[in-house]
Amino acid sequence: MAEAYIVAAARTAGGRRAGRLSGWHPADLAGEVLKALVARCDADPALVDDVILGCVGQLGEQSTNVARNAVLAAGFPESVPATTVDRQCGSSQQALHFAVQAVLSGTQDVVIAGGVESMSRVPMGMAQWLPEKTGYGQYISPAIQRRYPGVVFSQFDGAEAIARKYGLDKEQLDSFALESHRKAAAATLEGRFEAEIVPIHVTLEDGSQVWHKQDEGIRFDATLEGIAGVKLLTEGGRISAASASQICDGASGVMVVNERGLKALGVEPLARIQHISVLGHDPVVMLEAPIPATQRALQRSGMSLADIDLYEVNEAFAPVPMAWLQATGADPARLNVNGGAIALGHPLGGTGTKLITTLLHSLRREGKRYGLQTVCEGGGLANVTIIERL
């Protein structure tokens, strides 16, 4: 039976909006991760059959197939192809799934999957509002408007709807956000992220040069009072910027191979891919899809949550993982044990393989076996990946 393995996984440390990574062109930033992945396997980049990168804001510096541009920026041979995919916040997780499908089919043996997003240089939502401002229309077509009359598709409204549906009040959301920062701060101070981070050379405002190797968004001095004082995103709502994911610059990636790929590279696998799936759900509430997607993934894989040692559920907004915990009955102690996007940032197209990288390194460090990851995605979608540490 064919198998798909991860042999390398790496990410940059997150950069805040207009922060340390904002001076890096996204193609070059992704290129640094590509170089790190082949270096960690001591591999000839010519052996890479394809590079698949997720990216949400595919315009400007991230346009014209940013994955191919990252391959060229990394100095890989021109023979190495690349393509860019968009499944919104799960784009790089979907890139991983495409890579897994490729090596399982035997059509390719060594594939790099990853993602990049410079939210400083290509602002979130730019792909939507720029066409409208230039007269080229919007992505919501007349047929969609007829199917969902009067609906404004909004992730913020969706997050508020989830909070109301699952009875999550502002105090609970704020407390969850505080714990995200506390867990991320502890993980950083204990050096848990060091093995997964690719240091990036940056020049600071004063002209000094440093290596960026610590997630920039973590608030080591976060307090419940400070979080509670942040302005709400919608009037009368429950969610503030403090209980939502941080705008973030970053890149991440994993190298996926089959048995032939293992032999060609001469390396040992770090993990086996146990399951991949994706599910569509309500596009209006939008962010609830990880719940049914997880339930279906467990059913198809013949596993239960009791079999899973660690979970990564993206903290796009605090209600998403909190509702997931409530609906699935999962153990909170196994969820986002190093903090999540509320503290560490959510670089959109780069988040999927960022979380897989952290999940894999966490399993290895703690001697655990199975990890599950799911990400809510625009349009009411969710990918689920289950990995087994080897």
TrEMBL record:
Family membership noted in the UniProt record: Belongs to the thiolase-like superfamily. Thiolase family.
NCBIfam families in UniProt: AcCoA-C-Actrans (TIGR01930), PRK06504.1 (NF005077)
Record-linked PROSITE patterns: THIOLASE_2 (PS00737)
Thiolase N-terminal domain segment(s): 5-259
Listed Gene3D superfamilies: 3.40.47.10
InterPro entries on file: Thiolase, Thiolase-like, Thiolase_C, Thiolase_CS, Thiolase_N
Keywords annotated in UniProt: Acyltransferase, Transferase
Domain Thiolase C-terminal span(s) in chain numbering: 268-389
Protein's UniProt name: Acetyl-CoA C-acetyltransferase
Domain of life of the native organism: Bacteria
